[in-house]
Amino acid sequence: EPEVTQTPSHQVTQMGQEVILRCVPISNHLYFYWYRQILGQKVEFLVSFYNNEISEKSEIFDDQFSVERPDGSNFTLKIRSTKLEDSAMYFCASSEVGSSYGYTFGSGTRLTVV
Amino acid sequence: QKEVEQNSGPLSVPEGAIASLNCTYSDRGSQSFFWYRQYSGKSPELIMFIYSNGDKEDGRFTAQLNKASQYVSLLIRDSQPSDSATYLCAVNLRGQNFVFGPGTRLSVLP
């Protein structure tokens, strides 16, 4: 069964550093998403991406965050100047036809900011 | 404020019983509703979705939607210990993003 692949599975970074989280969506999917889940809390929407541009973003997705599809397969989330409160599980997701039939989530990257 | 509410649980049911998980949402404009299962430390996994009032069945799972009451539920028949997980209700208002509830932790006792 096709999978959304995320790397790394766990990243530890120092406060103030930049991190890039990587995702390979399912190959025929056109919509890409990032969500995050702080430990013990809800899954929260960050951003959606379609046709090489951001289609929606939440209040969480401020200037500290950016997304990019640098080539035909990867989808990245960059977090500049990380803060302690950015520590969370970050999930990439993709879908073929928007949200109509739900998304497929990747296995996640656990980001720990120290 | 777009809110999705669920009882946090844990909901404990014996093996073979029916587990009933409930979700309420605040925005009447919500269009589609999803149930995800999340094992501890893992990513959400889609179980099923529902758009229209009434019931939708898929194997041991039945989703029920009542838009007038702003209520959606998930029934799991013949519960198995492997069903023990957190069940997340997600609501799509418009656009492509989902609002997730806090999840209900289900424990199926052998």
Structure write-up:
The complex is a heterodimer of chains A (114) and B (110). By secondary structure, chain A is an all-beta fold. Chain A has strands at residues 5-7, 10-13, 19-24, 31-37, 43-50, 53-57, 65-68, 75-79, 88-95, 104-105, 109-113. In chain A, strands 2, 4, 5, 6, 9, 10 and 11 form a seven-stranded mixed β-sheet that branches. In chain A, strands 1-3-8-7 form a four-stranded antiparallel β-sheet, with no helix packed on it. In chain A, strand 4 (31-37) and strand 5 (43-50) form a beta hairpin. The mean pLDDT of chain A is 95. Chain B is mainly β and 110 residues long. Chain B has strands at 4-5, 11-14, 19-25, 32-38, 45-50, 54-58, 61-66, 71-76, 85-92, 98-100, 104-109. In chain B, the strands form two sheets. In chain B, strands 2, 4, 5, 9, 10 and 11 form a six-stranded mixed β-sheet that branches. In chain B, 0% of the residues lie in helices and 55% in strands. Chain B contains no helices and eleven strands. At the A-B interface, strand 5 and strand 10 of A face strand 4, strand 5, strand 9 and strand 10 of B.
